[in-house]
Amino acid sequence: MFESAGHFVYRGRWTLLALTLALTVLVVPLGLELFGRMADGGFEDPRADSTTSARWNDAWYGGHAPDVVVLYRHPTVKVRDPRYKRAVHDSLRALPGRHVRAMVTYWTSRSKKMVSEDGHATYAVITLKGDEQRAYAAVAARLRDVDNLRVSVGGAVPLLKELNDQTAADLARAEAISMPVLLVLLVVVFGSLVAAGLPLVVGLLAVLGALVLLRLLTEVTEVSVFSLNVVTMLGLGLAIDYSLFVLKAFREAVADGASTEQAVVRTMATAGRTVAFSGLTVATALLGLLVFPQMFLRSIGLGAAAVVLVAMAAALVVLPALLGVLGPRVNALRLTPDLGRREGGPWHAVASSVMRRPVAYLVAVSVVLVALALPFLHVRFGNVDHRVLPAGSEGRRVAETLDRDFARNAMAPIDVHVLVERSFTGESALPGPLGQGHTPISAVTPVGPVDARPFAARLKRLPHVTAVEVAGMSQANGAVRLAVRHDLDPMSEEARALVRTIRAMSPEPNTRRVVVGGATAAQLDLQDSLVARLPWMALVVGSVTMVLLFAAFGSLVLPVKALLMNVLSIGASFGVIVWAFQDGNLASALGFTATGSIEATVTVLILAVVFGLSMDYELFLLSRVRAEWLRTGDNTAAVAAGLQQTGGVITSAALLLLVVIGAFSTAGITIVKLLGVGMFVAIVVDATLVRGLLVPASMRLLGGANWWLPRSWRGFHRRVELREPAPPPASPRPAPPPALPSARPTSALPSARPTSALPARVTVNGRPAVFGADTDPVPLPAGPDRPGWVRIRASPARVVRADPHGGWTWAEVDE
């Protein structure tokens, strides 16, 4: 399949490149429309009580969380001064009515909570009409036009605008940082400006693809404002990663004397196959986020999976087409020696050392990874709030000022909705059963504060509760909304315990139902939702990944081992995240505010991303090991050769990806920093300790069991596998005269198949081949783990896709 794709891409290279250029020009304006169309929030479970509470706040009581909060302060004049009132109200009356639905100030509400403790500051709450972002853009300048008062603007809508602006700035800064560094590193790896520039072309296509795909998603669903950095980071990093492997394979084929078409076909059949499996595996891990109901995770899962497939397609279509045009000129403008083909050196020494002492490496690396994971044992999950923005953000300063200088949690009480049990009123005019026209039915009993008073009195007696106020009533729905104010941090464990206590309280006799909402309840419901669905994500992603690995490698052992290795990588990454962000050990270095917790949804996102990236390098290593195993039948030699041949390129790919992720770790938004650091640690651990030491050591100890597959499954695997063939030689070479090793004559070999069995019909690398006396193959004993197979040395002229130098290969005897 991949060989056919290689021929197709080469023959249609100019058409494919022309179509790519035309499509790029057409979609650029569409991608740029993304900014301003993304949504904040999206961390709630739509079916949770806290989400129901927020919906009722809007639908039943005519209001919800304020769109805009305008904070006013004067250094000497107090709020109760008439001049203060005049200045604020004159400013607010100047706002266009077509953009403003409602305004609340201290003077209209007479709420003491709206005056600071020192009496010099107050705030106004504004609800906007229509499209909030457009309405805010229309009134933003006028909000600050107040005589003699210092004005700061915050609230949900300004915070979203700041998040959008910060996201765009972070993206521009990350690209400005990463692109020059990537170019330098690519020149060092490939030694050629032309070769170094190609991965950047593919990376830019992936970034544009990310923008367009997210923009299209906004037409059918909400897309989180945080998704842009995440999706762009993945698209750019993986596009460069995949390009590196494709380029390396192509340049090796050219160096071996292959024509340009042969090199493209060989590249697609080897590196292309591995890139395709990697892209599918990473996309599968990200699509696992769709099992969660939160918009944040679903939009990032869809966008990231799509951009991974775009990066894969660009590396498998656009890049081979470019290589087909360039041919040997891919090495033009050489500046440094080519490091890409150096497969020996340090990695040869590492491979030899691991093969000699596998137990020592297995134990030592496992101890290190467990030690890194230990901080995760005291993890505390939190939620996103204003502290994700930089400390200098205006919206963040407003939120912190309200919490510090005004009534504690004035803007974030615990909402308690009391649904009252109402009865019919009025006396029966005449005796008789209902339905005979004798019993008049009047309106239901009106609800009032008195109906919730007994429950409110019980709430006031709870620890840390400072006040319980009636915040709204709905006659149509028979509900009274209570605002429970407390002196706790809304994101703290103590506040969550208070919500649990309120939910566990028995309702009053006149109460149908009690629903608890608010920021703290939303955080609690989010954690419960994630915990409930995490096993389903693990089941879906694990199952699909094992199927893909089975199809790739024809083993039942390797997929299980790969999953176990990934658990260690992810555990180490999570431990470092807790140490750095929750415990605040990197707060000064990375410039963020430690909150004593880590965001729960981002933790799940890191799990999906890190799992996919870990499988990425696992596939590159195991593909080469399997090719060596099929060629030699020697597990130890195959593992050592696979590590030696891929160690350098995996390290280079990881280094390039780390540059991209490291640049995004400078983002001003804390959760993007958290994601970047988590991915950074995971890649470092995975590319060095896990893929470089732990995986080879475990495979060395497992021996032939690595490739175990029940005989009854072999036929099925032949039908589903995507085999990486050994590439044919670039030009015909005379076959060396086959001869038995003098030290091991055939007759002395135990269990050797007799030469009289020739000619035999055998299958070599999945293709039928017949050997007779004219080719004089040398059958050797079947391995204990490969019954029904023989090891042969045969002429490449007669063996379909055998080793091009006439080496040893395995053949399965059909008859």
In short:
Residues 724-788 are annotated as: Disordered. The chain has 815 residues and is α+β, with helices and mostly antiparallel strands.
Oligomer: single chain
Strand order of the largest sheet: 2-3-1-4
How much strand content do the residues show?
5-15%
Number of helices in the DSSP assignment? 23
Largest beta sheet, briefly?
4 strands, antiparallel
What general outline do the C-alpha atoms trace? elongated
User: If you average the pLDDT, what whole number results?
Assistant: 78
> Total strand count, please?
14
Q: Gap between N and C termini, in Å?
A: 27 Å
Give the helix level as a range of percent.
55-70%
* Helix vs. strand class: alpha+beta
Count of discrete domains: 4
Indicate the radius of gyration in whole angstroms: 33 Å
**Which runs of at least 5 residues are low in confidence (pLDDT < 50)?**
424-442, 724-761, 764-791, 793-810
Family: Belongs to the resistance-nodulation-cell division (RND) (TC 2.A.6) family. MmpL subfamily.
InterPro entries: MMPL_dom (IPR004869), Mycobact_MmpL (IPR050545), SSD (IPR000731)
Keywords: Cell membrane, Membrane, Transmembrane, Transmembrane helix
Subcellular location: Cell membrane
